[in-house]
Amino acid sequence: MELSQFTAHELLDKLKSQQTSSNAILASLYARIQKIEPEVKAYVRVQEAENPALNYSLLGSLKGLPVTVKDNICTEGLPTECCSKILQGFRPPYDATVINKLKESGAVIFPLKANMDEFAFGSSTENSYFGPTRNPWNLDCVPGGSSGGSAAAVASDEAIWALGSDTGGSIRQPASFCGVVGLKPTYGRVSRWGLIAFASSLDQIGPITKDVQDAAILAGIICGYDPGDSTSVNQGVPDYTKSLTGDIKGLKIGIPKEYFVAGLDAEVKTIIEEAVNKLKNLGALTNPVSLPHTEYAVPVYYIIATAEASSNLARFDGVQYGYRAQSDNLMQMYKLTRAQGFGQEAKRRIILGTFVLSHGYYEAYYLRALKVRALIKRDFDQVFQDFDCIVAPTSPTGAFKIGERMQDPLKMYLSDIYTLSVNLAGIPAISIPCGFTKKGLPVGLQIMAKAFNEEMLFRVAHTFEQNTDWHKIKPRL
Amino acid sequence: MPIDKETIKHVAHLARIELQANELEKLSGELDEILSFIDKLKYLDVEQVKPASHILSLSNVLREDKPQVSLSPNKALENAPSKKGNFFSVPKIIE
Fold first, then answer.
1. Which of A7, A94, A114, A212 is most exposed by smallest CB count within 10 Å?
2. Domain coordinates of chain B in residue numbers?
3. Model pTM?
4. Which domains are seen in chain A, by residue range?
5. Beta pairing partners, A429
6. What CATH class has B5-43?
C-alpha cells in the first residue's frame, strides 16, 4: 500500500513512531498526482507550480502531514485565484485563520490548490476557469461542487485530507458524489477570515476526509473563536475524537418526510432507507418528522446567496488585485474588467443578486426571503426539541454527467435541494458514504444536528462507518 | 414578476458589468425562469414573521480601539495591476 492511500490518523501514527516522514508522504502524493492527475484534474495550476520550502512547525501534533486547500482560502504567497480569471495572479499577502491554525499544528500546506467552481458558484466544478474536475468513480461524471477538487483529490488519494467551503452544500454534495466524508460546521464555529467571501451569512470552511476520525481531528484544529471574524462565536472547542464512541443506543433520529418526495432517485432512496435501518439495528430510535418549509429552501437560498454575493464581489474591479482590462475611462475599465474577468455563472448571480436588492424589488424578494429563512430555521428548532439528529440523503441523485446540467441553471440549482436548508438554518451537517448505485457511483448519507453539536454528528457518523465497509472501497483509476 | 431587458441592462450597469447583446438575450430568458421559480415565496404568509438577517444572536460585535500592526503599503500594493508610489493607480477621472 502506498503512503498516499492511508488516512491521516493512520499516517499520524506512522509519523509518531517514526515509520515514515513528511517528505516520504509528500513524495507519495506527488507520484500519485503524476500518475492520475491528467485524468482527474483535481488540482489547478499544476504545470506552473513551484515547490516552496515545506517548513513546518515541529511543535504541533500533525508532524508535517500535508493538507490540501481549496483555491478560495488565502495562503500567503501561494496563488489563490478562486478559479476565476478576475483573480489571475493573486498571491495573498496573508494566511487565512484556518491556515494559521494548521501551520501552528504542524501541518504542511500542500502547494497545489484544489479546483472549484468559480467563487464557489456551482454544484459540479464545471464553472472553474481552469476547466472541470472529473469524478474518480466515473471520469465522465462531475465530482460535485463547488469543492469538487478537494473531494476528488481525497477520493483518488491525491490528497490525504482537504479543506473545502460550504455555502449551500459545497462540501457535503461533492463528498457524497466522491464517496468521502464532508463536514459543514455550525455557522460561527470556524473563522471565515481569509476565506474569499461568497455569501457571508452562509459560508463555512470544513474538512473533506477519508473517514470520520480524520474529520474529527481536522475539525478540532480549524474550529474556534477568532476576533478577526466578527461572526465567529466565542465558545470552547471540545475534543471531537472523544465523540467517536461507537455507541448510538437510544438516540432519537428524525427522518424528514419532505426529503423523500418526487425528485429523489429511486435507487438513492433505497440506499438511504437501508442506511436508516442500519442505524436502527445499531440501537437508534427513528421516527418520521416534518420540516414543512423545505420546498422554499431553493428560492430563499438563491435570493440571499446571490444578494450577498453581488455585494461581496463588488471588490473585484481591477484596482487592487487580479485582472484589469485596459481602458482610458475608469467606468469602462470597471465594466470591461468585470465582463472579461467573471464567467457566465458569476455574472448571472451578480446580476440576479443586484436585482433582488435593487430599489422597488428589495421587499418583494430579499426581505421576504429573510422572513422565510426564519421559518426554515424554526422548523429545525422544533424538531431538535425532541430529536438528537436528523438523517436524510445528501443529494437526490448520484453524480451526473459532465455537461448534463450546464445549459439549465435552474436544474443545477435543484441539485442542492437537500443541503441548502442546513446553511440557511446555520446548523452543522456531515455527509458520509452509505452505498453505491448500480452504475457504481457513491451515495452519501447526511446527518444534521442542532447548532454547535458537531459531537452528535461525529458520534452517529462514526458508529455507522465502523459498522459498514463503504468507506473502505476505493475507485479504480 | 417578469424581468425585461431594459431592467437587466440597468441592473448590469449598477453591477458594473458590460453585457454583450447575446449575453443579454440569454440572461433575460434564464433570469425569467429563475424568478418565476422564486415567485412561489409570494404565496406564503409572512406578515407576522421577523426577518432572519442572521442566524446567530450576536449583534454589534466591537473590538477594542487599539493600534495594531497592519499590512505595509508595499505588501498591500504587491498585487496591484497598476501603482504609482504608495498608491493604486487608475485611469484619470478628472479632465
1. A94
2. 5-43
3. 0.97
4. 3-254+385-472 (3.90.1300.10)
5. A184, A448
6. mainly alpha
